[in-house]
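User: I've been going back and forth on whether these two constructs are worth ordering. Before I decide, could you fold them both?

Assistant: Sure. I'll take them in the order you sent them. The first construct and its structure tokens:
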Amino acid sequence: MLFSSMTFLFVFMPLVITIYGLSKKEIRNYVLLIASILFYAWGEPRYLAIMILTILVNYVGAIEMARFFNRKKRKLILVATICVNLGFLIYFKYFNFIVDNANNLFNTNFDFIDVIMPIGISFYTFQAMSYLIDVYRREVKAQKDIYKLALYIVLFPQLVAGPIVKYHDVCDQIDNRKVKFENVIIGFKRFIMGLAKKVLLANTLAVVADKVFAQDTELLSQGIAWIGALAYILQLYYDFSGYSDMAIGLGLMFGFKFMENFNYPYISKSIGEFWQRWHISLSTWFKQYLYIPLGGNRKGKKRTYLNLILVFLATGIWHGASWVYFTWGAWNALFIVIEKALGWGKDEIKKWYFLVFRHIYALLAVGLGMVIFRSPTVTYACEYIQVMFGIIDNHNLPNFDYGLNYKFLIALLVGFALSLPLMRNILNVKYERKVLRSAINIWLFILFFLSTISLAASTYNPFIYFRF
């Protein structure tokens, strides 16, 4: 079930909110747990057993760790339980990729049944592992109530596409949270903004991006290649940040406060800053549970560079079983290491022209990285980038309808404008400013109306990050 589906908007969400609001505090966790299981089973009933098994494995692993004070025994249990989690992830997400590459490498012909990846497995697996590691580090106590642990892992607002919620951030909220009317209203407004981002911007931009990237590179002109890249850069941002907004908004409606997942990433002046603003929950997860345990920046420059490379290669592979994602991770690692070597994170140079140069550089590096990310193969990405810069100059191209119309142009311009922090605090206007609050409420109602009309008339509505 998608947040941007008519079933969710007009049946599931109002029904769950109503039942939750009318329920006593003591049973609200159970209401959310049942709703979350139904939400997941709606789209993936055959893989519900995998999720339940994940819950049981992590519940038992944490309880067993809590029983021992011996560090070696606790570490052994931690490693064993994490291996089970990663085993599920590797099998369902990377098995086909491993078999295909083994066949190519050894010239064999192993023919196994294709494994279909369960929705959200990358997200809920990382959440489960954060819980285990937190318990091992004695940062939190092992959750003795299996239903509360299950709620943490399967909570439907962030179940299938994040943000990745770390256990130490929400453990207190699971046990004790208050649902305030003010937060419910803010959450609903946040949800509408996310819905509009997804439906009105991302879906519109996707029409052009999909048509451009579906073409062979020898059929693309330089201008069309740039338009396709720009369309996808904004599509990906509004698709994923829109989902995160809806997830955060839903969380507020039920009394949960999730971390922000995006903070205007396209105003960044370096790739390092970009990753502090883009998919923040994933970046902080890798920092806390991989980069720092590897040694971080505490073991000299060479080791720091190696740790950064390993983290970003892992980030790439996390996104999918493809050499494209591995290459995209390596692309980001390259610039991160260069910036680290140059000391760009210190911002010691404040001259305007240097800051402008850095901003242009960051946008170009991010944009070319997104082209790699979107391409079906690494070869296609290389050819596409060559077309963008005129290295490959195609002539006598056939006419093709890429969907370049006024609707796309408006979405592109609005997308560029909203990628800047122009209306950062629009939902937190003070009560005293009644005229402005009323105008915002009317505008949000219009956005919700337009979004639902668009959903009813459109056949395109997938979330990009569902496949990760």
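The second construct, handled the same way:
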Amino acid sequence: MIEKLFVAGVDVFRINMSHTSHALLAELHRHIRNVESKLNRPIGILADLQGPKIRIGTFKDKEVQIKAGDKFAFDTDATPGDSKRVHLPHPEIFASVKVGDFLLLNDGRLRVEIAGVSPDRIETVIIFGGTLSNRKGVNLPNTLLPIAALTEKDRADLEAAASIGVDWIALSFVQRPEDVSEARELIAGRAGVMAKIEKPSALLCLDDILKVSDGIMVARGDLGVELPLETVPARQKQLTRAARRAGKPVVVATQMLESMIVEPVPTRAEVSDVATAVYEGADAIMLSAESAAGAWPEKAVATMDKIALSAEGDSFYRGIMNAQRNDPQPTTADAISTAARSISETLDVAAIVSYTESGSTAMRVARERPNVPIITLTPIPATARRLALAWGQHCVLTPNANDLEHMIETACQFASSEGFAEEGQRIIITVGVPLGSPGSTNMLRIAQVGKKKTPAV
């Protein structure tokens, strides 16, 4: 099934560490790498950490009914609760909340407003009632909690994932840039760091979080619980555009084709939602239960792939990308990437071929959203796998070129053999000179496939 999903359109496989043991992680990693080897195509693997889970205690009768307008308390008493109170085993919450804050229970289905706070008790008034059962989750949309984004389980999972060679690690419950910096220090360059934006507090310091992240995920599930639902589309746009400005990949996730968990076709609204993420400039769109536990995993992936291809092939897409284009940063890599995109629009070129070791130049080319394919050549498997998440990348593993002429010849050969250019068509090549120096992209070349002489730019 992993092979079928990849052929259907998957570029990166997400492994949810909330439901995955270290043994199963290693097994899944092995299966994916076997498919990668068989098909000779780099495949990305993302380990998604669980993050801290804030939950209430238990009830005498397993569940209670709470009604709007009634009073309900959360306290430090571990005794099973009733319709008037329940244990909240998180002392840091009692020290952080204030009167007027809200608590959301059971994925936001129940809502209470805080009317009084003491060191061992929180008095609330029920706004939206319903059934409340054992160990349901608690969200605090108005409160910045003094809780680290990494639990002991997360630290163990992070080390297990990084040590076997996953390509991305997604960090849950990010509230501040320090949360990402802590994870980055533990990862120590072994994987890319993706900050999941699911807390309103993260939106307040988004630019700082982006600076220390390698990418972000628009985690619309928890974000939609903690924010008013009607504001989530605007926040999605804000996050997508901020990531594109920074030149870092952004993933849009949660409930994209939710009905395909059980149905073989999505709703028209879901198709529109997926297309909207593509039109907005997302690097990746993510399936969750649709492919992990649904009845139609291969069909869900193929459907999402077709929606993305259709949206990017539409004339409106190019206009939107051009309208949202950001000014290049004053770096050589940005200048070269911007020039490559500009030349591709002026000349009839088949592709942009980018040589990279670190992957940074390929990311800058992707930021420009050129109207031709990006072929990224790298000698480093980890770079090719990590770039699988970025927009428009077709990564190919190749040894370092011996000299400039060999590099040009190799670029033309791969542009042809990978099906992007025919003999006589021109391609744009970006590379760093001297060859093999990471982060040194400083040259742009126009070459003609099947021709030996090439004009330099």
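Notes on the second construct follow. The chain is about 40% helix and 20% strand. The two ends are 46 Å apart (CA to CA).
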